[in-house]
Write the C-alpha cells for this entry.
Amino acid sequence: MKTQTTASDGVGLGRGGRMSRQRKRDAVLRLLRGEDLEILSRALGVTAATLSGWQDSFVSAGEASLVTRSTNGAALETERLKAKLGEMLLERELLDAKIAALEANRPLARRRSRR
C-alpha cells in the first residue's frame, strides 16, 4: 500500500487550476486503492473536502450505473407524472373528507395555536 504521494506521480492541477476528468478519476482511484487523503490532497493542491466530494460523486455514479430500470426521458417523465397523480389523489381525498364534514354540519378539526 502506497502512502507517500508526490506531485510528479502524474496527477496535478491542470491549466488555470482546474483538473481534467481523467485526472480527477485517477485521483479518486488512488484514494480507493488506499492512499492517504491528506497526503494526496496536498500533493494535488486541492482540499481534502474537494477530493472527498469527487470520490462521493464517483461512487454515486457507479451505483447509478448498476440500476437495471430504464432511465430514458420517457420513463423519468412517467415516474414524475405518477408521483404528481398520487399527490393529487391524496389531496382530493382530504378535500372530499372536508366537504363531507361541512355538509354534515360538523366542525372541522381545530388547529392548535403555535404560541
Notes: Residues 73-103 form the longest helix (31 residues). The chain is about 60% helix and 0% strand. Residues 1-11 have pLDDT under 50 and may be disordered.
